[in-house]
Design a protein that fits this description.
138 residues, alpha+beta, Signal recognition particle alu RNA binding heterodimer, srp9/1
Length: 138
């Protein structure tokens, strides 16, 4: 009977790892779309084609006037950028940078892992028979 629970726990851990890897790589795949480089963004600003800009740390997300498609690029330390955007009449929004994705994944999985850990603990306690069941406080 003990071997059955070990196998079950092993398969649960493997399943959790597969789901975690799928979640991480799916998020990386969505962010892996081809992004215009910074010089293309500056060129679009100079030509007056940029409608709005959202700045999050080093990430610049912008919308062109001629298309509804949102594009992203990363910026370097470029102090004249905000002045250039204001001179061209571009709507600017500044937001705080996103949190660490590992932190978000960790917070998402903690309740499930805690639940599984408590479940495994109770299953092991019940293996000892009636005298040992729920005697974890003694």
């Amino acid at each position: 009977m003990n071997q059955v629970y070990k196998n079950l726990a092993l398969w649960m851990v493997i399943g959790l790892i597969v789901i975690l890897l799928f979640t991480v790589f799916q998020g990386a795949q969505q962010g892996g779309q081809e992004q215009p480089n910074f010089s293309e963004f500056l060129k679009a600003v100079e030509q007056g084609r940029v409608e709005s800009v959202v700045i999050r740390g080093n990430l610049v997300t912008y919308t062109l006037k001629d298309s509804a498609q949102v594009q992203r690029t990363y910026t370097v330390d470029y102090p004249e950028l905000v002045k250039m955007l204001r001179d061209r009449g571009v709507r600017i929004a500044v937001k705080p940078p996103d949190s660490n994705p590992w932190y978000a994944v960790f917070l998402q999985w903690v309740p499930m892992l805690l639940f599984i850990g408590v479940w495994i603990f109770f299953m092991r306690q019940m293996q000892g028979g009636g005298a040992k069941a729920l005697s974890f406080g003694k």
